[in-house]
Amino acid sequence: MDTHAAQAAAPAQAGQALVDFLCFAIYSTNLTFGKAYKPILDELGLTYPQYIAIAALWDEDLQTVTGLGEKLFLESNTLTPVLKKLQTMGYVHRQRDSLDERQVLISLTAKGRSLRERAFEMDLSEACGLSAEEFAAIRQAVIRLRGNLRASIRK
């Protein structure tokens, strides 16, 4: 294990600065992403959880709440109010699965699908200041990190 990986995995050592914590770098980057997305989301009239729920439905419409929650890493007690609000806003339709009444199916309305064009006009790629290769490499590294952390939690 290299020194950086050992520091990331090890508990805080005396004298280790907050800026040296990988978890803090990711946490603070996430907060900054939120601030950068805020004007975009305000223009769309959405919160970030609402936006990612709609984006996941753009990828695959007609999903169960459970399946959507797994993709978004959200528990159903967090996701359900988001989906109810999106339904009130006219972006999604919720219905019980006729084959399994325990499941609720979520699909986009025409209004929800139409948000896609507006949302993709408002891109943060340039704000990241990364080349396409850097962007892809960082994204893959973060996904691998997330997977490793999830695997360690399940042990």
Share in helix: 55-70%
Rounded to the nearest angstrom, the radius of gyration is 19 Å
Largest sheet: 3 strands, antiparallel
CATH fourth-tier homologous superfamily of the domain at 45-122:
Winged helix-like DNA-binding domain superfamily/Winged helix DNA-binding domain
Number of helices: 8
Strand content: 5-15%
CATH topology of the domain at 45-122: Arc Repressor Mutant, subunit A
Distance between the termini: 20 Å
| CATH domain class of the domain at 45-122 | Mainly Alpha
Can you give the mean pLDDT? Answer: 87
Give me the side-by-side strand order of the main sheet: 1-3-2
Secondary-structure element pattern, one letter each? HHHEHHEEHHH
Shape: globular
CATH second-level architecture of the domain at 45-122:
Orthogonal Bundle
Number of strands: 3
Low-confidence stretches: none
Question: What is the structural class?
Answer: mainly alpha
Quick structural overview:
With 155 residues, the chain is mostly helical. It has helices at residues 3-9, 22-44, 48-59, 65-72, 76-88, 110-121, 125-128, 132-154, and strands at 63-64, 92-96, 104-108.
Considering the chains and any ligands shown, give keywords for the structure.
three-stranded antiparallel beta sheet; about 160 residues; 8 helices; Arc Repressor Mutant, subunit A; mainly alpha; globular
